Amino acid sequence: MSKSLKKAYLWLIILFLYAPILVLMVLSFNDSRSRATWGGFTFRWYIELFKDRDILLALYYTLAIGLLSSVIATIIGTFAAIGIFGYKKLSYSLVKNISYIPVINADIVTGVSLMLMFVFLGINQGFFTLLLAHITFNIPYIIFSVLPKLHQMDIHVYEAALDLGANPFMSIIKVVIPEIRPGIITGFLLAFTLSIDDFVISFFTSGPGVTNLSIEIYSMARRGINPKINALSTLMFVVVMALLLIVNKRSASNTEKKVRRDI
Amino acid sequence: MSDYIIQLNNISKVFEDGFVALDNLNLSIKKNEFLTLLGPSGCGKTTTLRIIGGFEMPTEGEIVFQGQKINDLPPHKRKVNTVFQKYALFTHLNVFDNVAFGLKISKTPKNEIKERVREMLNLVNLQGFEKRQVESLSGGQQQRVAIARALVNRPEVLLLDEPLGALDLKMRKDMQIELKKMQEKLGITFIYVTHDQEEALSMSDSIVILNEGIVQQIDTPINIYNEPKNAFVADFIGESNIIDGTMLQDKLVHFCNKDIPCIDTGFAKNEKVDVVIRPEDIDIKNLSDAQWTGKVTSVIFKGVHYDITVESSDGFVWLLQNTDRQYEGDTIGMSVDPDDIHIMKKVIDL
Amino acid sequence: MRRWLSYPYLVWMIMFITVPLLLIVFYAFTKQTDGGIVFSLDHFRQILDPLYLKVFLRSFKIAFISMLICLLIGYPVALFLSSKDFSQKSTYLMLIVIPMWMNFLLRTYAWLTLLENNGIFNKLLEFLGFGKVQFLYSEGAVILGTVYNFLPFMILPIYSVMVKIDESVISAAQDLGANSFQVLLKVMIPLSLPGVISGITMVFMPAVSTFVISRLLGGGQFALIGNIIEQQFLLTGNWGFGSALSFVLMVLVIISMFFMNANERNGKESML
To answer: What is the complex's ipTM, to 2 decimals?
Structure first.
């Protein structure tokens, strides 16, 4: 097949992926409640969006849960990965496989299982249970970002640190963690984005008065079309794009650094 | 029809990034010849092979196969087969299916496929390996599968792209002998790419030396070694002392502060030349009989001989190979027979 | 290294991964009677009730069709992107990945705006002189939403397997007489199979368990397993039945995990 035909096909797919988002973005500036007629340019929906207390509160919870859960998950998960790395074959694959369950399991099953657990423990559902749930599904992503870096790492650097007089804990803090830092950072970013994006698990584990943006969007969308959602989509898309660009630039300069060090 | 099976006429290849891989290459390959393309990495030898195989289009020039121009023929329609550098075996197929791949594509009858694959596996000493997965084989065995997979199609020409590069030394030596035997037995033209000069010398009927996309010399191994056409060839084939000299007259050359008799003729008077002397051609003499004297700066034992470096009074550092041990710091005498001195035209650097 | 570093996580893992799943198993296989809690398969029997069986089959049908469409659309994308004559691979890849980072609900909501009765598609049809079409709240809308949301999950794993296929293996096939179609059939497809399998599971699993897409684009009419589970836990309070449904989904996950593992093992052998 010719190259231009392949290119055309790819662009068709890209159009399919972007068209709905672009339509939302255009409509967010439309001064008409109707979706199909242009009523003039306006910032009205953005202003209304920022006046909506529920949405602002949901935004606050989203960011708070996202940041807290990813930081805590990064700490627990990094140490977990270092520990698991030293396991014998059988326990290694057992723990690895169990940790893999939240990654591959249907979100709805993870959600209801955690909900059952919280009921079982007698914890009232709210901010705290939401946080616990997010930490739970975040940790595996940290572990699976860090483990490959541990495998790539020269195991002798740890032994060298011990040999030079550092105790095991110091060796890990001073030598091992810097070696696996790229994996930790990737895991953290992944955890953060997954947390702010999550809907299903949050839906089952949060309680009255505590919602994140996804839950808020769901309840608004269920009530029908709302131009404020268009404005919110546009803002979120712009933020995601900016974040991705930053992350990309970072990783590009990282590879450059790495290449330079390799030389 | 000529007795050449493949002719490359005025082939040039310029890559998209402007890199000139081949510059006006002319090459004629005889039937049943074992021809080796030899040169340092980036010299264009693999590109030449890929052009013959059809994986690369020349920017200019024509490829003639059995008297017909085949520039536009896609790889799968060419009657040549390739043994790839890292074997490129199909990991989803077992040994039998790997070897049978080409025959199945050409819709050969089942019985014949069975027969020919068996025959080929016998030839490469892999009888009984039919059902094995290719990943479970050693490097040498994978190599044999790759050779069998190409040869089973009975190509007119077999292209081999550094096929032994990934093997260890011992295995490489064994495979060199086997490949040469196979080629003689099957009577197929082999075009062989390598950067290993020893390999080239020991296997080939003729060698093409390439550097920076330009043919330096095409000749038999013996002539290449004994009569290198220029300093690059001399340096690339074996080790050499390459010294700046001036041709005083026919059979007399001036270098290292001496006028030395040689056997070369046909140079202009006072023409600047490269003087090439093989390390093993330098004799160690008494100081009084010697053409030059110098101080031994290092002695390294190499098994059969010693590598000896000697710095002569004019500052040139000589490499000698001699079976007699010398000692660092000693002053020794050196001489060279006239017919061991090779005079070459200077390659003008652009 | 230091195994004790993982102990906090082990406690966490048992409390929030293992025990919760055991609770699901417990609720699924027991029921409350006057004589206390007893083992029972009643909840699984309930699945076989024609009313729920229909939902079950519909979920699988929609997930399967969506997965198939993703595969048919996505495979060529991965194939073209991984071919060597394609420069700017990473730019195209970025373009395909970015929508994945957009909030899942917003992506689904976007189609709500496009497909509704006063939406752009219908306005367009009206403008062209056709009548309005009820796009929304149909099986087609649910499938469309599913394909749209999960297409990148099909493309990425296939692509990542394909770019690792050694270029010289393709050259070798051509060298042995295979034309481009035979190269695709006999080399590319078999070698990319591991990617296809993980793509299939990555699309099928979320598709079969979704309750958002079916709720927003299917309205109430096209309830899927996910919707029934949600109902049991948040509305009717029949945790036993909800757990039994969740248990079925878990078994499905375990089966697919087994497939992926077998795949990985084959992959590892090939490394040795």
So the answer is: 0.88
